[in-house]
Amino acid sequence: MAARWMKWMLPNLAMLVSIAAIAYCAGFFQAPSRFFSDADPGWHIRTGDWIRAHHAVPRDDLFSFEQTGQPWFAWEWLADVLMSTTHSFLGLTGIVWMYTLVLGAATWTWFRLQWETGGNFLIACLMVSPLLASTQIHWLARPHMLTFVLFPLLLLCLESMPAKFEPKHAALAVAGGALWANLHGSFPLAIAIAACYGRKYFALAACMLAGTFLNPYGWHLHWHVIDYLILHPELHANVTEWQKFDFATNYSRIQVGLMFAFAAMGAVAAAFEHRLRHTMIIALVLAAAWSAQRGVPVAALVALPLANGAITTFLRSRKRLRNFIQIGDEFREIDNGFNGAALAPIAAILMLVWLRSPAVAARTGFLEPNYPVSAAAAIPPAARVFASPEDAGYLIYLDPSRRITWVDSRTDYFGAGRYRTYLQILNAAPGWQDAFDRLRFSHVLIRRDSGLARALPARGWRAAYSDETYILLAP
Questions:
Q1: Which helix (H) or strand (E) holds 259?
Q2: b or e along 150-182 (b: 16 or more beta carbons within 10 Å of the residue's beta carbon)?
Q3: Are 398 and 444 in a shared domain?
Q4: 454 and 312, same structural domain?
Q5: Which residues have CB under 8 Å from 277's CB, separation 6+?
Q6: Same domain for 165 and 225?
Q7: How many whole angstroms separate alpha carbon 454 and alpha carbon 436?
Q8: Which domain covers residue 414, as residue numbers?
Q9: Which of 97, 264, 269, 432 could form a disulfide with 314 if both were Cys (CB 3.0 to 4.6 A apart)?
Q10: pLDDT per residue as tens digits for the range 393-447
Q11: Quick one: 229 exposed, middle or buried, by C-beta within 10 A (0-12, 13-18, 19+)?
Q12: Do 328 and 468 fall into the same domain?
């Protein structure tokens, strides 16, 4: 009995690093504020509120005064509902808690995948820092973080799948595809990864694909994803997370570079060891990560465990490095005697208590000077506000029923043309007056250093509110 109790109380490496990742994210990384570095959580939460109130998914836009009645895809609606439900009980503190726990679950699943692929204990330890640094560049309170768990979990299922494909596997694949498609639009990559496992897994990939059609929008969702990501890349061409990772200036460049190096070595080792499916998967996710920094976290979560397994197998047959591998095996044997499962709920409860403490709660959410907290209070109820897409997301969070915003950060919905018009007006570029007058704005909420803030006073607009960062102008 004592031995069993010790096993449940003493953490193994996966549990230890998972708890450490949660603590690092919430504390040193300052997740209570940095999770809201963009305002997307605002409209995700309010979309979920609408779905819960109406017991349906929206078919038309909910937020823009210009787009009333225009079709819109809430393609992450299930994640929106999860965020809304959490928010209804715990506010923005709950959102931080939810996504820090997701990060912990992702880290734990990542280690399970390391062991499933035959990865070495010591090499896994070396990969922890590149993993956390690579995923950290996209630590935001948005639905994509749910895929931090889904991708390694998918690979864990594929690696442990028995040789015979049975009806229960088909049912699970359909259910998994449906769940993924309703949570996040990355489901095509998941299906591609499954297909890389070869002919035996084509049936499973087909079942996953069939499951993705079990969403409120049917095949229109698939067309929307293709249209946004492939046919119209200009829609996200200027979005930071869709740019290439900047190895020249990004503070995580060394660790991300190590991630690419580990993965590339793993791809080569997998080819030598005839694990061609692993080589293809690593190449696929690395190509995605190289083309857009949004793919870097997925590459770390997917490629590093596969790389560890391939590198370990390759090194095991090399006499000079066999001792290193054997030492790792011995540590893994010791590590396997513990799991620390009892610590997971304890850590989750302690994290929630800490997040709800007055000092931390005061630093949680959309804060000044990043958002116009004080300026927003001066906006009248029936206004038509010109604001940045990020500030619009915050205004939506405050009260979505008012429809006071024009464009927000839903790039797949508003299109490149509206963002060009937004920039034209913001910078007071030639022709801005016609576009500005056509949209009949009643208020302008912008940063003080913008061209529009300097141009509007000449047209008789005056400051209704002003602080060191923001100015609210009205005619």
A1: helix 253-272
A2: bbbbbbbbbbebeeebeeebbebbbebbbbbbb
A3: yes
A4: no
A5: 196, 197, 198
A6: yes
A7: 15
A8: 373-474
A9: 269
A10: 999 999 988 889 999 999 888 888 899 999 999 999 999 999 999 999 999 999 9
A11: middle
A12: no
